[in-house]
Amino acid sequence: MSTVDHHALPAAEERPAGTARWADRWTRWAGRAGPPAALLLVVLALWEWAVRAFGVPFYILPAPSRIAGVVIADHAMLLADAGVTLQEVFAGFAVAFVVGIGLALAIFSSRTVERAVYPLIIASQTVPVFAIAPLLIVWFGYGMASKVVMAALIVFFPIVVNTVDGLRAADPDMVNLLRILGARPRQILTKIRIPAALPFVFSGTRIAVATSVIGAVIGEWVGAARGLGFTMIHANAQLHVDVVFAAIVYLSVMALGLFVAVSAAEWLALPWRRAAGPGSR
Amino acid sequence: MTTKLRIERVTKRFPASAARGRGAASVDALTGVSLHVEEHEFVTLLGPSGCGKSTVCNIVAGLVPADEGTVTIDGTPLGATGSRVAYMQQKDLLLPWRTVVDNAALGLEVQGVDRAEAREEALGWLRTFGLEGFERAYPATLSGGMRQRVALVRTLLCRRDLLVLDEPFGALDAMTRSTMQDYLLRLREEFGRTVLFITHDVEEAVLLSDRVYVMTARPGRVRAEQAVPLERPRRPTDAGVVERKAQILAWLQPELLEASR
């Protein structure tokens, strides 16, 4: 079929962009990470100095070096606690994700569902979820279930709202294009709506994953027998403030790790966003 | 010669939208537009912006129904059978999450062609269009001209022999545009597809078409028809081209004044 003269065709105008060298990337990354890392070190140094200079007792404010000591020495206990909290976060997240995406699809596909459900979901955000934590303990017990529900409730909202926004974000002209090509509604959903929604789903997930840790910890504060939140409350009551801080370190690392994991999943799942280059978000 | 597309006394009115405020009257987009395109013919619909050219396209593509009048393709009225044309717009509408080859193969895929087979067919066409080496690239990394070429391949690949091209090169710079025009003409010669082309560029219309319809300012209707029985390739400086441009411009002038009011 290609009897068209090749040589008369114009050559490709450009090479694809966005193939920066690894060295360049590393330099850019270091340039961004450097200043906050330096600031953090300065704050920690000041903190260390102040605690020593003014002789602040460890049960009021332990020095960073002392916290680091606890982080290392008590790692067996803290890791076991972190494992419990992480399980709660994962379970809560999974529940919220499945229910949230399902509900978002229902809201998107049905006017009736949208009108009945969406306003209630938005309004439900005025109820402070933490305030119902004691109730959840009453209903679901001291075990994992109450924390899972807590985490799920917190994560649910950003996932639903972002997914609905994403499903609506598809370019109507692209939808029309598919219609002209003869696509069925299901094809429009799978070929246009869902791919267009994915970046939104990921940004909702990134917000949700950090707050889900908060949800699980609050659940553990209110009533639990294990987990980092439980250990914090317990240690606080005994004025083991250094243990409280060590637990916070573990929680922060956990939340950061989850955030990085979601970002990595996004990086892998949306190669076309990388192609678009920086500033395309 | 058989008639590929026939549009008869088509009228379209849009209800007053909220954007134009309460109490705004409805807008007459088209009033009694009639035209026809013969098989293998290249026909251009030319008119000032806002004259309803795109509405004609959308009706032919089956995206919006006409209020009155009839549209027939291959003698069959446009009905509930879905779209029967290959349609291309000024916006390339490439799906950013699909690679070049998967974008080109989209039409075939939607029509139920096996994915591997669709890709295979698309790859051949992309080479013909000078897109070799970019098959796996994402649209975001391509220049405007390349993106539009991919869109053209996608349009050609959907196995429909009436092409409706709504200002397909309107967003391109002059050089790229003229290259794209060459592509289009060569493809048409080779595959004998029928083309309904929309533009507001008089020169483009005269260089490409067998016949040109000139539309009036809103409400749109066909004001005049100009045959262009000139040999191809044509150059903007050819006497026949210049003469027909002048004729069309003379028809358009009052309409442009009207449109700018």
Description:
- The complex is a heterodimer of chains A (281) and B (261).
- Chain A has 11 helices and no strands.
- Chain A has 281 residues and is mainly alpha-helical.
- Chain A has a single domain (73-270), classed as Orthogonal Bundle (MetI-like fold), CATH 1.10.3720.10.
- In chain A, α3 (75-109) packs across α9 and α3 (75-109) packs across α10 (241-269).
- In chain A, 32% of the residues are buried.
- With 261 residues, chain B is of the alpha/beta class.
- Chain B folds into 2 domains: 1-17 and 24-85 and 161-261, 3-Layer(aba) Sandwich (Rossmann fold); 86-159, no CATH class.
- Helices cover 36% and strands 24% of the residues of chain B.
- Chain B has helices at 53-61, 100-104, 106-110, 115-128, 144-156, 174-191, 202-208, 239-260; strands at 3-14, 27-38, 42-46, 68-73, 76-77, 86-88, 162-166, 194-199, 211-215, 222-227.
- In chain B, α7 (202-208) runs antiparallel to α8.
- The longest helix of chain B has 22 residues, at 239-260.
- In chain B, 47% of the residues are buried.
- Chains A and B meet through α7, α8 and α11 of A and α3, α4 and α6 of B.
Short description, anyone?
Chain A is mostly helical. Chain A has 11 helices and no strands.
CATH class of chain A: Mainly Alpha
Mind telling me the C-alpha Rg of chain B?
19 Å
CATH class of the largest domain in chain B: Alpha Beta
Write the CATH fold name of the largest domain in chain B: Rossmann fold
Series of secondary-structure elements of chain A, N-terminal to C-terminal: HHHHHHHHHHH
CATH architecture of chain A: Orthogonal Bundle
User: For the largest beta sheet of chain B, what order do the strands appear in spatially?
Assistant: 6-7-8-3-9-10
The succession of helices and strands of chain B, N to C, reads EEEHEEEHHHHEHEHEEH
CATH superfamily of the largest domain in chain B: P-loop containing nucleotide triphosphate hydrolases
Strand count, sense and barrel status of the largest sheet of chain A are:
none
How many separate structural domains of chain A? 1
Number of helices of chain B: 8
Provide the low-confidence segments of chain B as ranges.
Answer: none
Biggest interface found: A-B, 39 and 44 residues
Mean pLDDT of chain A: 85
Distance linking N and C termini of chain A: 41 Å
Mean pLDDT of chain B: 87
Return residue spans of chain A where pLDDT drops below 50 for at least 5 consecutive residues: 1-18
User: Based on the structure given, which CATH architecture of the largest domain in chain B is correct?
Assistant: 3-Layer(aba) Sandwich
